[in-house]
Write a structure and sequence with these properties.
Rossmann fold; N-(1-d-carboxylethyl)-l-norvaline Dehydrogenase, domain 2; five-stranded mixed β-sheet; binds 1,4-dihydronicotinamide adenine dinucleotide
Amino acid sequence: MKSASAPDYILGIVGAGAMGQGIAQVAAAGGITAILFDLSAEAAGTAKQAVSSRFHRLVEKGKMSGADAQMAISRVQIAGSLEAFAHCDAVVEAIVEKIDVKRAVFSDLEKVVSAGCILASNTSSIPISSIAQACTHKNRVAGLHFFNPVPLMRLVEVIRAAETSEETIATLTALGKRMTRTPVTVTDSPGFLVNMGGRAYTTEALRIAHEQVASPSQIDAIMRDCHGFKMGPFELLDLTGIDVNLPVSTIVYEGYLHDPRFKTAPNHWAMFHAGRLGRKTNAGWYDYEGGKPVGVPSPDHEAASAEPGPVALAAGDDALSAFCNELGVDIIQDDGTCPILAAPVGLDATGTALDTESDPRRLVCVDLIGDRTRRITLMTAPGADAATRDRVAATFAATGRKVTAIRDSPGFVGQRIAAMVANLGCYMAEIGLASPQDIDTAMRLGLNYPRGPLELVEHIGTSNCATILEALQGITGEDRYRPTQWLSRREALNLPIHTPS
Ligand code: NAI
C-alpha cells in the first residue's frame, strides 16, 4: 500500500456529483492527483469546471496564489472509463446511494486496480461491510465519509468494516489529513458516528414540541441562547430537509433494533406527509420567502402589563438564591400571594410543588442549567396562576434578559435535549463506535456543536446529567431516557466522563 504522503499519490473518484467534486477539490489542494469518472461525461466535465472556478475564487479572495491554483487545477483529471484507475493508489466512490450499483462498481474496480489500491465508499447510510461483500480482497475496503460541502466541512469519518485492515485505516487517516481534513476512526454501524449521534438533538426537540411543552421557535431560541448551538433543532431540520433527516432517523432506529433512544416523533412524519420539507419547499417548521424565514412566532414571553416584584424560594436552594441576588431580585418570606421560585434539575413543576410542599398555582420553576445571561426559561405546573408567572417573567425581563415560558416537563427544554445529546455520546463511547475524544471532535466538526457530547456531560455536570435522565425515565416511564452505563458508572465512581472502560 503506497504511503499517503507520496508526492505522486493518485486518487480515483467515481461519481462527479456534489460530493465527488468536493473530494476532488480537497485532494488537488493537498497535492494529490484526482481522477474523476462519472457515468455521465457531462457531469464529469461540469465537475472539472466547478472545481476550477472554486480555485479561481480562492485566488480572488487572496486565499491561494494563482500559481498554486493552476497547479491544483491541473491535478484534477477526467477519465472516460474505470480502466483509467489502473494506477490509482486509492479510489473513493461517491455515486448514487444504491447498494446494488455500489457493489457493481466495487466489483468492477477490483478487476482494474492494483493489489495495493484502497477502495473506499463515501456512502452516508449503506453498511461498508455490505459493499465489501462484492470484493475478494475485503481488507482494503473501508468508508471515507466526507460531509457536504466538502471544502468547508473539515471532518472525515474513516470507517472500519468487519475485515478492513489496520494499514487501510492508517493510510486513509493519513490521506484525510493530507486533504486538510480532520479524520476520526469509526466502527461500521448504522449512521456511522455523526449521523447517529445527531439524532438526539432533533428527535428530542420534536418530542418536546409533540408534547406541546414548547413551540419550535421557543425550543430553537432556548438551544441557541442557553446552550450555545448555532442553530436550533427546528432550524436544522428545515435546513437539512425532512426528506433527508427522516430517512436517516429511520435507518438509525431500524439499525439499532428499535432502541427507543432513537425513536422520532409523530410530528416528524406529519411534516413529511404534508410535503413541508423545509427550506427546499419554502415551508417546513417555518415558512420561507426568498430563502429567509418569515412570520416566525416570537419565543419571548410577553408580560408587558405585569410588574416586577419580590419572590419567595420554595426550598433552601443556594444556586437559585445566588442567582436572584446576582440579578438584584428581592427574596422575601412567602407571604401567601408572592411567586414561589424553584430551580429543579430533572424534576417537572408538578413534582417540584409536591416535593417542596409549595402552592403549585404560585410555583414558577427556573432552569439554571446552561447559560442564563441572555434567556431564562420558566416552567409552571397545570393550573398555575398566569399572573404570578407573568410577574416572575417581568422581574427577569427587567434585568435585560429574554424570558421563555413553557409548559410542565421533566428537565424543561434545555436540560432535556442537552441530557439526551450527552447520553447518546456516552452510548457511542460505550459501544466503542469511536474513542471518546473522536466522538467529541466529530460532533463539533460534523454538526457544528458548541462542544462534543461528552464535553457536554462535564459542562452540565455528570451528576446533573444522570439526575435529569433518571427523572425523565421515572416520570415518563420510558426506556428512551435510561442513562447509559457509561454515564452511570463514571457518575457513581466520580470519574471524568472520558475515562476509558
Ligand atoms: P449526486 O447525485 O450529486 O452525484 C452522484 C453522481 O454519481 C452523479 O453525477 C451520477 O451521474 C454519478 N453516478 C451514478 N451512478 C454511477 C456509476 N455507476 N458510475 C459512475 N458514476 C455514477 O450525489 P452526491 O450528493 O454527490 O452523493 C454521492 C454519495 O455521497 C452518496 O453515496 C451519498 O450518500 C454520499 N454523501 C452525500 C452527502 C450529501 O450531502 N450530498 C454527504 C455525505 C455523503
